[in-house]
């Protein structure tokens, strides 16, 4: 009996996806629910599993093909017929390989090589390597370009003394990890502080839709996470209802699934506000770009010991710069600045943030 392998149902915001390299070839045995191929969409990588055990007898679509929901991509032979199937058919041809253009290298003195990024291709000296953008990178480029052209983006800055948070973490991190099975990081403090500040300034959680302002009752925070395939922003839903332990557990789970390409479209859909932490890579200061249709995004940065004035004395404190990029069409400068000031005040007196952990 032959069974068709179809593209799974996609979300309303995703119309199609691109097939990545096939994990199985014609003639090979497959097990039920075994992944045959990955599907790269605008937001996430989805797995297309085998609907039953058997022999893969046909590949309807090659690597690199753009396919839609419910489209047939392969055929599996199951039952008694599967035992006699030989790998007679060749798999579909894969997409063309990236083209490498060579040009003479100008004479220059040798210099020390720079460390290459982990995801970057190796390019010999004097060559130019050209390859198509991945579907996700193309979509990211499109969305960020659209944000630059549609929103009136403005960024305001402040800095926060992280010593109170550091001291609180040191006091409770061992107990917290034993009790909840997850480490007490910085992100739960920032998520809960953002939720508290939004009680005073709900416009930061609102959005523009045409000529309307959409006021969100829940605070659904996108947490920017680096993955092997690039930046992803899974959504921490109803963050205002979550304890510190729930926040840390959810973010740890997002990170694991991002690393293993296990995030779903549902994980990445929606969101009313975002937090990005360039500090994990050593960024001292940046101006984050909005994630439309959201109206604001908070940028965290590296913690650096700096001299600051306290009560007329110069002291050394672990300081972090905060950046709030916002859509000035909706959020006035006064509200943006005061939101960031409120956030600073909450983080510098953080004891309530660990309540009901």
Give structural notes.
The strands form 6 sheets. Strands 11, 14, 17, 18, 19, 20 and 21 form a 7-stranded mixed β-sheet that branches. A 4-stranded antiparallel β-sheet has the order 1-8-6-3, with no helix packed on it. The N and C termini lie far apart (55 Å). It is of the alpha+beta class. Helix 3 crosses helix 4. It has 6 helices and 21 strands. A hairpin with a 2-residue loop joins strand 15 and strand 16. The chain has 2 domains: 83 residues, Beta Barrel (OB fold (Dihydrolipoamide Acetyltransferase, E2P)); 218 residues, Chloramphenicol acetyltransferase-like domain (Chloramphenicol Acetyltransferase). 23% of the residues lie in helices and 29% in strands.
Quick tags:
single chain; 357 residues; alpha+beta; OB fold (Dihydrolipoamide Acetyltransferase, E2P); Chloramphenicol Acetyltransferase; seven-stranded mixed β-sheet; four-stranded antiparallel β-sheet; 21 strands; 23% helix; elongated
Find the structural class using helix and strand composition.
alpha+beta
CATH superfamily of the largest domain: Chloramphenicol acetyltransferase-like domain
Helix content: 10-25%
Provide the CATH topology of the largest domain: Chloramphenicol Acetyltransferase
- Radius of gyration, in angstroms, nearest whole number: 25 Å
Mean pLDDT: 86
What is the CATH domain class of the largest domain?
Alpha Beta
The largest sheet, given as strand count, sense and whether it forms a barrel, is: 7 strands, mixed
- What is the rounded distance between the termini? 55 Å
- Helix count from the secondary structure assignment: 6
CATH architecture of the largest domain: 2-Layer Sandwich
Into how many domains do the coordinates divide?
A: 2
> Tell me, what's the shape?
elongated
Strand residue content: 25-35%
- Helix and strand succession? EEEEEEEEEEHEHHEEEEEEHHEEEEH
Regions with pLDDT < 50 over 5+ consecutive residues? 84-118
Number of DSSP strand runs: 21
